[in-house]
Amino acid sequence: MDGDDQNQQNNMIYSVLNRIWPRRQRVSSEKDLQEIINESEEQGIINEDEGGMLHSIFEFGETIVREIMVPRTEMVSCSSEATLGDVLKTINDSGHSRLPVYEGTNDKILGFIYAKDLLRHWGEDPDSTELGKVMRPPYFIPESKKIESLLQDFRTKRVHIAIVVDEYGGTSGLVTIEDLLEEIVGEIQDEYDVEESQLIVEKDGSLLVDGSMDLDDLEEYYDIEIERDKFDTVGGYVMHLFNKVPEDGDSVDDGALHLSVVESDGRKIHKVRIIRQQPDEES
Questions:
Q1: Of 73, 113, 81, 72, nearest to 96 (Cα)?
Q2: Residue 191 has what pLDDT?
Q3: Are 1 and 150 in contact (CB under 8 A)?
Q4: Cα gap 226→210, rounded to integer Å
Q5: pLDDT by residue (tens digit) across 220-278?
Q6: What does the alpha-carbon distance between residue 198 and residue 221 come to, in Å, rounded to a whole number?
Q7: Would you say 141 and 68 are in contact if contact means Cβ atoms under 8 Å apart?
Q8: Per 3-state DSSP, what percentage of the chain is helix, strand, and coil (rounded to 5)?
Q9: For the whole model, what pTM was predicted?
Q10: Which end of the chain is more exposed for a tag (fewer CB within 10 A), N or C?
């Protein structure tokens, strides 16, 4: 969405709100609207979930794909040399209805397999059906693409999944239409999802945090702001502080936060314990 379209959309929102709140101060900016949402939550006009959704709509226009994508290391995909039987097993085991197909490595994505397309080959020998017969073409997008623009592309192109590439053409991850919707309405759980909290409050007040947790959530929990440098997760934040991939048991201080690595595998941080220190405890 370009600047003119964004301004037109904002003007429409302000016009509607001015009719809803005719006795309030006129709404003329996003800041005014944010204040109205906050006041409405405090007065019980809207609940916390509704307020959060409205705030998410504003953030939606500024969020880029890299911030919400499924990273390459967590992608579930299949080789172009796999049989249809292998693909069916991967779909059943993972619960995903769409799988990227790669040749050699995930840096060369050839297309996607949709589970519903496999129904056309029901009854056939799964080991004799070529993947090319059921594979759909890939859709590539850059990491920096705004998710608002991507949602429009998904609608016009009638696709539900895209491969995210970096500036060198390598695969960074993938993003689905469900990922975009979750930015507005929150986490969507289906029958295949295993709900596991990424943030657990321990008895001693410390936090046990998943390394893949969005750093925004940690900032919101502690009501702090963490200086960013090309990282979006708690794991990326910790690696930035160490300037390397730390080992289990390594710890570091950053302001009021004391962070200890609980679980890592030499490439990625899986679990971190965080303690907020009192002022006299800070180093």
A1: 113
A2: 47
A3: no
A4: 17
A5: 889 999 988 778 889 999 999 999 889 999 999 998 899 999 999 888 899 999 999 87
A6: 12
A7: no
A8: 40, 25, 35
A9: 0.62
A10: C
**Residue 50 CB partners (closer than 8 Å, separation 6+):** none
Does residue 246 contact residue 236 with C-beta atoms inside 8 Å?
no
Residues with Cβ within 8 Å of residue 159, at least 6 apart in sequence: 139, 153
**Residue owning tokens 């590439």:** 165
Lowest mean per-residue pLDDT among 58-62, 177-181, 199-203: 58-62
Angle between helices 177-185 and 48-60 (to 10 degrees): 130
For residues 261 and 248, is the Cβ–Cβ distance under 8 A? yes
Tally the C-alpha atoms within 13 A of residue 223's C-alpha that lie toward its C-beta. 0
pLDDT at position 152 is 87
Buried b (16+ CB within 10 A) or exposed e, 67-95: bbbbbbeebebbebebbbeebeebbeeee
Report pLDDT digits (tens) over 173-188: 999 988 888 876 666 5
> What 3-state class would DSSP assign to 109?
strand
Range with the lowest mean pLDDT among 42-46, 68-72, 106-110, 150-154?
Answer: 42-46
- Give φ, ψ of 134 to 5 degrees: -115, 5
Q: Which amino acid is at 63?
A: T
Dihedral angle sign, alpha carbons of residues 163, 77, 234, 223: positive
Residue 107 has pLDDT above 90, yes or no: yes
CA distance 76 to 67: 19
Q: In this structure, what DSSP letter does residue 155 have? A: H
